[in-house]
Amino acid sequence: MVRAPLNHSKGRQEVEIGLFCANQITSPPTCIMSFAETYQSFKSRDFLFLWLGMLTLMFGMNMQMLSRSYLVYELESSGALLGVVNAGSAIPMLTLALFGGVIADRLDKKRIIQTGQLMAGLVSLVVGILILTGTVSWIHLLIASIVQGAFFAFLMPARQALIPQMVGPKLVSNAVALNATAMSFTTLAAPTAAGLLYEFIGPGRVYLIITVLNFASIIFTFFIKTKGPSTRSKNGSESDSNHPKILIKDMLQGIKYVRSNSFILILLAIALSTTILAQPFRFIMPIFVVDIYELKADSMGLLVSVMGLGALLGSIYIASVGNRMRGAILLISSYVSGLSLLLVAAVPVYLFAAVIMLPLGLGDAGRRSINQALIMEEADEEYRGRVMSIYMLNWGLMPLGVLPAGFMSDWLGVQGSIAILASLLIIFTIWVTFRYPRVRSHQ
Hints:
The chain is an all-alpha fold. It has two domains: 2-38, no CATH class; 40-231 and 240-441, Growth Hormone, Chain: A, CATH 1.20.1250. It has helices at 32-38, 45-76, 79-87, 90-106, 109-132, 138-167, 172-200, 203-222, 238-241, 244-259, 262-277, 280-283, 285-292, 297-321, 326-346, 350-378, 384-412, 414-435, 437-441, and strands at residues 2-7, 12-16. Strands 1-2 form a two-stranded antiparallel ribbon. Helix 3 runs antiparallel to helix 17 (384-412). It is globular.
């Protein structure tokens, strides 16, 4: 630990530390300034309400992810159908995300976000009613997955593009890390809540609780004042600027902009590799729980929650270190994820898997938050919505990564499927480490 000189104007000691603070006998605790720096983006009132809205929305989405996956496998006992349902959101995300980025660069971002939150609430309400009336099938869950992918294609680029306008360029990395902290908390708490509630009150009532959380996110977003500047004034009237030809032209300009920036391209490739190779494990986890560990939904909730704990600790650490060694941490996080998945595949013991979920969550936090922050910092403001919509394509491809993983689990076994994906992730990370030195040396 290295301490900076005492700053009397601030009336406290500034310290340069990571995640942990040290108590000293002869001086005050040295973690005060570090704590303030870790959460400094919350000084922006708008960002705080955006964060709270995201927290409630993603808490519901993580509850839904577990409930839907377990319900599909409970209904059909098929890894392939589990992959198909989770892949449903990929279709609209892949086809609409680029248009979502154009819309985010042109229209009121706050209203786009609220519309997406409203759609999330309506979808979960309909699914809950179908379950309670005993008419739900995997087809209904597939349709719900498709609709949710559609609103995320517009919601997420608008939300990500709004963050730098709220906190300023110097705090982008901190704000993204705090977002990752919220995501990690929901990953920690929501699956446990969903797993327990699934067992005691049933999936239908779980979906009604998810509906309440989705509508609560709209209320938080209502208090946001920042709407985000529109580019309509640069392109004529509103009706002209929203003409399909103009929208397509802007979309192509966004693609051209990304292609011209090699650093953004490799960051997008890193995001794509980890999305396709690491994330599918979350979706086919029910197969591990049911077939390998021979346990129930609450046991799956514990695994996901331990993973969330690791991601939570990792996100807090990344928020505290600021803009130091981010490229190296990004690559190390990818290695940690790959090795953790290999261990899960190799050792079919539930308690061992629960322990490995911690480093798996740590790797996920570093990969997600640093990658997003670097992309957002590198992108010019007028293109940020479109750049983040291209980043969103990774999320659209994530369910497609689940699809081959689901089929491989039926053919080779779920352990063999995860082992293959983990090995590919490690190989790709080694290639990036030696092929792109700018990534590993980036601050």
